[in-house]
Specification:
Chain lengths: 298, 216, 277
């Protein structure tokens, strides 16, 4: 082997150089899609929340840390080419931040996946969380919720040319994809569908496009985002068969902040910001903005 | 620890266990066949085949298995090759493991005394005959040790398939922990199942090793 | 190469050379045809379209990839150190004269060698480190690879000739002294290739961090693929074609480093022991 060693070493070096030049070479900045930018919300200046530990900590550090999803188009999406975030959940998070006195420049986004939301909120890693977070009693034992700010329901995403699947009942024996461990798995299994699971929704959507599955199921809000991303190819069936109330996740003990977030949601729903945000994000899939749900203060 | 016997969890667990065994067995067969073929290429007198085998091995040994799973699961459908998740997993695992099998075989071939191959050649055997009838059977004995490590690693690596839509033990673990069972209770049973699988493989290899050696 | 290969076949004569050449040409044609078919298929299905590769043009994405490489190397570095330390400790345990220690070490080694890393990492993440995926990854990698390194080191110590330890005892060394000054250094030198091979495995296995949202290279790749929508679908193939060479380069660089250290080590011994008897 000693004869071939230099060759291999050279090859390794060459590969390393190639890889580096490929990544470090001159590049573009900005975004190819450049979706409609956030209009910005009026930032309040005289905010005082006595008794809110989270708020006091955020003020002290001069930054609000918000947890969000990064891989859900239309809801919580990270544009990796421009390092910006967009989507309906992101807009909601921005509205609330503005009412708490934090402009966009003072927001620090953290991507937190579904499994870690409770830990992140309880441990104070994030100040609040906005990302398809369904309000339920089990979660209320660990965190608290402001809102709901949106009503979603489990629905089906199919290819545009598919007319057989009209609702959950017609998925019997069909290949339906969803994400590992989500509650959608059990719900669709009761209808007799053959369930396929992957780690993320974009992987399911990819399988839908390549015709390896017949439908993707999860909350309609998430599906609408994917339909908007692939307008010529995919559509949402539009027969939700569960109800999910999306709330803003907060630390369980911070009742003052919860009330403040509820107030902020209410104010922006009344001012029309809510509808404008919907039209700019989820609404681009073609569906008209619904009425915002009534808040459930507790 | 009783979670296994609640709510039909046992059926889920049993199916996962069988899937793991099935997946490991199928991949092992593919890895062995492909590994022998690659090893033959690697020591063959034809330079092109040697180069091909070397490049193949360097690629597959130095790429994370997870990335191979990605390539097979999401890459193949893009070029209109549609395979079931199980077949995809067998392909990824088999090709990955084959490169290790090949390396083990090659080092085993080196341990066979020179005289054996020389004697075979002096009898007029061709390269193929020398390799298959004389050298590989003897190399087989020498490589049992390292080969057992490769095949003990295989069921362990098969867990990655759980993240790619194969309902084996890892995905059972995820499902159970998502259903809200205590993580340690779930972990206990899954760990036990894997220990059983790897102990079986290890025992099998030990029995092979203890078969009376042929005199050289 | 030639010395080993020629054991299996004679120096080719004119006819054999012609035959090999024919095989060579056929083989090369076959491989070229396969490659061409693969590339043509990819091109036909739009995998080389500009949109598919567009994300890699952006500085933000390039920076992400570099950050991914950095995070991969961080996890690898920590896990490598942990696994080597653990490997030495466990190997010492397995070679101990005290039966309970031996049993305990054997139990630990056998358990972690049999456990799928993915399951370990996932369990550690869920149970202990949900806020710190790096530590779940490092600990999982360290435990598993430590167990494997322990077996390699133990094999190396057992392979050191008996006379070495007898000579050591004759000089009045205690067992720990014997280990530290005589057996382990020789074992490590003999086992260096195997240990480095395991380090390459450690490096590759950092990619399992993607299941627990640790932002290593593969996670970054997944994010790029999933967050870029093109008319031809998500760019999984371009991402694999970019990420895989980086991993291969890192692993080959590590192997090359190992060879270099090994050759230096050999030179060192040669200076001290001029010629084997």
């Amino acid at each position: 082997m000693p004869v071939r060693m230099p060759v291999r070493r050279t090859a390794a070096a060459a590969l390393a150089v190639l890889a580096l030049t490929a990544t470090a070479a001159c590049g573009k900045s900005g975004s190819p899609t450049a979706g409609a930018p956030s209009t910005g919300y009026t930032v309040r200046t005289d905010v005082k929340l006595d008794g809110s530990a989270t708020f006091a900590a955020a003020k002290a550090r001069g930054k609000l840390v918000i947890g969000a999803k990064a891989d859900q188009p239309g809801l919580g999406f990270e544009d990796i080419t421009a390092n910006t975030r967009n989507g309906f959940d992101i807009e909601i998070a921005r509205m609330v931040a503005a009412d708490l006195g934090f402009p966009e420049s003072q927001i620090e986004w953290r991507t937190i996946d579904s499994a870690n939301r409770e830990t992140a909120l309880a441990g104070g890693q994030i100040d609040y969380y906005v990302g398809t977070y369904s309000i339920n009693d089990k979660r209320k034992t660990q965190v608290s919720f402001a809102g709901p700010y949106y009503l979603a329901g489990q629905d089906l995403l199919v290819r545009k040319d598919n007319t057989d699947i009209t609702g959950p009942e017609s998925t019997k024996g069909r290949r339906v994809c969803t994400v590992t461990g989500s509650t959608s798995v059990d719900a669709i299994r009761t209808y007799g569908a053959e369930v396929t699971t992957f780690g993320s929704y974009s992987q399911c959507v990819d399988k839908l496009i390549t015709k390896d599955v017949d439908a993707v199921t999860t909350d309609d809000a998430i599906l609408k985002g994917y339909a908007a991303q692939n307008p010529g190819e995919l559509r949402v069936v539009g027969k939700p068969f569960t109800t999910e109330k999306y709330g803003v996740g907060l630390n369980k003990d911070d009742k003052v902040l919860r009330a403040a977030v509820d107030d902020a949601l209410k104010a922006h729903e009344d001012s029309g910001d809510w509808k404008a945000a919907y039209d700019r994000t989820l609404g681009t899939a073609g569906s008209a903005a619904p009425q915002p749900p009534a808040l459930e203060r507790y | 620890m009783g979670i296994l016997f609640e709510d039909g969890n046992f059926g889920l667990f049993r199916d996962g266990f069988l899937r793991t065994v099935e997946l490991s067995a199928a991949s092992a067969v593919l890895a062995l066949l492909l590994g022998v073929l690659l090893a033959a290429f690697r020591v063959s007198p034809v330079p092109v085949l040697r180069t091909f085998a070397t490049v193949w091995i360097e690629i597959f040994r130095n790429t994370p298995l997870t990335l191979l799973f990605f390539a097979v699961t999401f890459g193949l459908p893009r070029v209109d090759v549609h395979l079931s998740a199980f077949v995809c997993a067998v392909l990824a695992l088999g090709c990955y493991t084959a490169s290790f099998v090949c390396e083990v075989l090659r080092s085993g071939i080196n341990t066979v005394p020179l005289g054996q191959a020389e004697a075979a050649r002096s009898l007029g055997m061709t390269f193929g005959q020398t390799l298959v009838q004389v050298v590989l059977p003897q190399a087989g004995r020498a490589v049992l040790g390292p080969m057992s490590s490769v095949f003990i690693a295989l069921p362990r690596n098969s867990a990655i398939a759980g993240a790619f839509n194969v309902a084996e033990l890892y995905s059972v673990q995820q499902t159970l922990s998502e259903r809200g069972y205590a993580i340690f209770a779930v972990f206990f049973w899954i760990a036990l199942a894997y220990l059983c699988v790897s102990a079986t493989v290890a025992l099998g290899f030990r029995r092979l090793e203890h078969r009376p050696a042929v005199a050289r | 190469m030639t010395a080993r290969a020629s054991v299996l076949y004679d120096v080719p004569g004119p006819r054999a050379r012609a035959r090999y050449r024919a095989f060579g040409v056929l083989g090369a044609l076959g491989i070229a045809a396969l490659l061409w078919y693969a590339v043509a298929q990819l091109a036909e299905h739009g995998q080389f379209s500009a949109q598919m590769w567009a994300p890699f043009e952006y500085t933000a994405v390039q920076q992400r990839i570099l950050d991914g490489v950095r995070d991969t190397l961080t996890a690898f570095g920590l896990a490598a150190v942990l696994s080597l330390v653990l490997g030495v400790l466990l190997a010492a345990g397995r070679l101990s004269d005290h039966r309970p220690v031996r049993w305990a070490a054997s139990g630990v080694v056998e358990f972690f060698r049999a456990m799928p890393l993915l399951i370990m990492i996932f369990a550690l993440y869920q149970a202990v480190f949900s806020a710190r995926p790096l530590w779940a990854l490092v600990l999982g990698l360290g435990l598993y690879n430590g167990a494997v390194q322990a077996e390699i080191i133990r094999g190396g110590v057992n392979a050191v000739p008996r006379g070495q330890s007898e000579a050591g005892y004759a000089l009045g060394l205690r067992k720990s002294q014997l280990m530290a000054t005589v057996l382990v250094p020789q074992a490590v030198r003999a086992m260096l290739p195997a240990m480095i091979g395991q380090l390459v495995v450690t490096l590759k296995d950092t990619s399992l961090g993607f299941v627990i949202t640790y932002t290593e290279l593969l996670y970054v790749g997944k994010l790029i693929a999933g967050n870029t929508s093109t008319p031809q679908g998500y760019p999984y193939i371009p991402v694999v074609l970019v990420i895989a060479p980086i991993y291969i380069a890192l692993c080959l660089a590590l192997t090359a480093l190992a060879r270099w250290i090994e050759s230096r080590g050999r030179r060192g011994t040669n200076r001290r022991t001029p010629a084997p008897a």
